Amino acid sequence: MSDIDGQTNVLSLRTGSGSIDGLGRELGRFVVATMPIPWQLVRDRLGAVPMAVIHVESMERDVLERQLAELPECDTILAVGGGQAIDLGKYFAWRRGARLVTVPTIISVDAFVTPKAAVRLQHRVEYVGHASPDPLVIDYQLIRSAPPELNIAGVGDILSIHTATFDWELAHRAGHHEHPFSPDDVARARDLVANVERLADEIRRVTDAGLQAIVDGYLRVNTICLPADHYRAEEGSEHYLFYELEERLARPFIHGQIVGLGIYILSRLQQNRVEWITSLLDRIGLRYHPVDLDIDRPTLAESLRNLRRFVRARNLWHTIIDEREITDAWIDAKLAGLRFASR
Ligand SMILES: [Zn+2]
């Protein structure tokens, strides 16, 4: 996997089961950013004792600044855990100018390959700073200790390329050129979906090869999106449905799963290889049905009815939502294949 060229943000990469063993001995004076469960999994394997262990309390920026002020002097920030623990580590490393080492214990989101930390300012997400892991440590065995469906959810932000690149092309044809269309980037991005398709059974079984396909996909998405300075290759109408639902329901979701629901629905509005992408979602075992996300039918129908108004009010990029009307009849027909939570 070291054959990634281009801008990845990841300065070095170490993979393999057991790759965290003894890691602490290479870090000098180090501080750990983590959460209780992931820290429990790794602390006896590092071979060294950190100067301090800081747990995620909240990603609100004033909380982060308070924690930062209490950090001891150190050479390295070791981030261990899921998206928030990794973001906490990125934030500290950025603000302190320290070396960053990241150990994801789950790969359900791409925080461990992106340079900015997602923080909150009065509950609104903001992406700040810049920190690159050296190394990023992918310990397959450690990652497999997380529930399989959460690691499988990691494919959501790779499969979203299917609907996002369609939207990007649509915007280009409709005369929106704020993100100059690149057929080459689109071809490279679609190759990542093809790679996930080739390894679908490995991903479903959460094997080393399956986990590697997801990590590799994230790294390569970055080589496309970071130089372009936008995420149109992997973010479009499928994410917009998620934004609407998140605002409507005011609760968090497992990102890859709700993006999966977006891919299911918006690929249908696009009339974009619907059978193929649906069977791929199913083969991988991504949980995208509303019942898995605790969404009932009236809520989803209302969200879809509101979607165009929502994207226009937010001034979001031009997508299929701007071009094809979502009618009640369409909603009835397309939601028929989904399983819902009952109320
Ligand atoms: Zn996403």
Give the helix/strand layout.
Blueprint: E1 13-15, E2 30-34, H1 36-42, E3 52-55, H2 61-69, E4 76-81, H3 83-96, E5 99-104, E6 117-121, E7 124-128, E8 133-138, H4 140-143, H5 148-152, H6 156-159, H7 161-173, H8 183-198, H9 200-204, H10 208-228, H11 237-249, H12 255-270, H13 274-284, H14 297-313, H15 320-323, H16 328-335
Parallel strand pairs: 1-8, 2-3, 2-4, 4-5, 5-8
Antiparallel strand pairs: 6-7
Helix pairs in contact: 7-12, 8-10, 11-12, 11-14, 12-13, 14-16
The protein binds zinc ion (ZN).
Radius of gyration equals 20 Å
What is the helix tally?
16
Tell me the major beta sheet: 6 strands, parallel
Cofactors, ions, other ligands: zinc ion
By CATH, the superfamily of the largest domain comes out as Dehydroquinate synthase-like - alpha domain
How many beta-strand elements?
A: 8
Tell me the span between the first and last alpha carbons: 46 Å
What structural class do the secondary elements suggest? alpha/beta
Portion of residues within helices: 40-55%
**What's the arrangement of strands in the largest beta sheet?**
1-8-5-4-2-3
Domains, number: 2
**Whole-number average pLDDT?**
94
The CATH class of the largest domain? Mainly Alpha
